[in-house]
Amino acid sequence: MPTPRQLSKRRNHIGASDVGAIIGVDPFRSAADVWVAKVYGDTFEGNEMTALGQALEPALLTWAQERLGKLRRNVERRVKDWDAPVIVHTDAELIESHCPVEAKASGLGWAGGGEEWGDSGTGEVPERVEAQVLTQMTACRVQMGHVAAWLGKGRGRVLFEVQWNEEVVDYIRIEVERFWRDYVQTRTPPPDSVPALSVLRGIDRIESEIDLPDGCGELVEEYQRASEGRLKLEKVEKSVQAEILHLLGNADAGRMGDGRLITFKPIHVKEQVRKAYTYRRMYVKDEPKALPAPEEDTDGTQEENQEGQKD
Questions:
Q1: Are strands 100-106 and 144-151 parallel, antiparallel or unpaired?
Q2: CA-CA distance, 118 to 126, in Å (whole number)?
Q3: What Rg value do the Cα atoms of the chain yield, rounded?
Q4: Dihedral Cα 167, 170, 174, 179, nearest 10 deg
Q5: 8 Å CB contact between 43 and 204
Q6: Measured between alpha carbons, how far is 15 from 9 in angstroms, rounded to an integer?
Q7: One pLDDT digit (tens) per residue for the chain, 311 residues
Q8: Which of 95, 181, 247, 298 is the most exposed place for a label (fewest CB within 10 A)?
């Protein structure tokens, strides 16, 4: 994981972890997100996912060292011969071969749960990870890179080998050079891409006023309508929820006449990076209503009816 000093320097160069977003294979970041970080500065201070990665990284690298050989951790290298400033910070490198070793966590709760990882010993890693490791290999001038991953769904620690791919590396170089030349140096945002709201909110803004482009008024009016509608809906939601909870009394579930079940049960979140906690959420479930049990025949009429049917 990058150090605070490395984070402060990211504005002046492309990092290996930026490459997947630049070429469009990172599901968590876009090229526009990277552009904001380079033009306005990187203010990302981490989240639960990155905290989980930081907590697992030392153990993963120690485990990888037992299988690959001695490691040198947190190494900085520059990619040479590219017409863009590209600096990589490997989690570790093999001392003997200089092959990079990248530590990843995926599928542990919320962290990268939708990404596909292949079999141990293969290079079948998510495309964003492959792009990152290939860029590291370019800086290290080696033909192989390793990924030590801690995966969910019972897989645990898995080691992958990424092989050199000249065609993909050429494509990465062309796209990174174009991104730096056409967008970062000219301060022109990439077309057809809007940065994530969380990224835009994190910009370190200065006290100033600018003239907005024509047509911005329509966006502002659309925002106002959406904001007013959201507030009204939130108010209605809270009011209706209060009425339903009032009908439940102190029960945590209720069955409606049409068979649907409404619940207000506790949801327990296990301790991972932060302490465990519990909260309640209301759900409406479309469950079939159970058929009533047949009534007991206490006066003998059922037996009489059956005899009548036989006649």
A1: parallel
A2: 9
A3: 29
A4: 90
A5: yes
A6: 10
A7: 555 565 667 789 999 999 999 999 999 899 999 999 999 887 666 667 777 777 889 999 999 999 999 999 999 999 999 999 999 999 999 999 999 999 998 887 654 456 789 999 999 999 999 999 999 999 999 999 999 999 988 889 999 999 999 999 999 999 999 999 999 999 999 997 889 888 888 887 888 888 888 888 888 899 889 999 999 999 999 999 999 999 999 999 999 999 999 998 888 876 654 566 676 665 667 655 554 555 555 454 444 444 444 44
A8: 298
Q: How far is CA 93 from CA 50, 55, 107, 144, 231, in A?
A: 21, 19, 25, 11, 52
Q: pTM value?
A: 0.73
Contacts with 256 (C-beta within 8 Å, 6 or more apart), sequence order: 262
Q: Which CATH architecture has domain 4-201?
A: Alpha-Beta Complex (3.90)
Return d(Cα 152, Cα 74) in angstroms, integer.
Answer: 25
Q: How far apart are CA 24 and CA 65, in angstroms?
A: 32
- Domain extents for the chain? 4-201, 232-285
Q: Are 11 and 37 in contact (CB under 8 A)?
A: yes
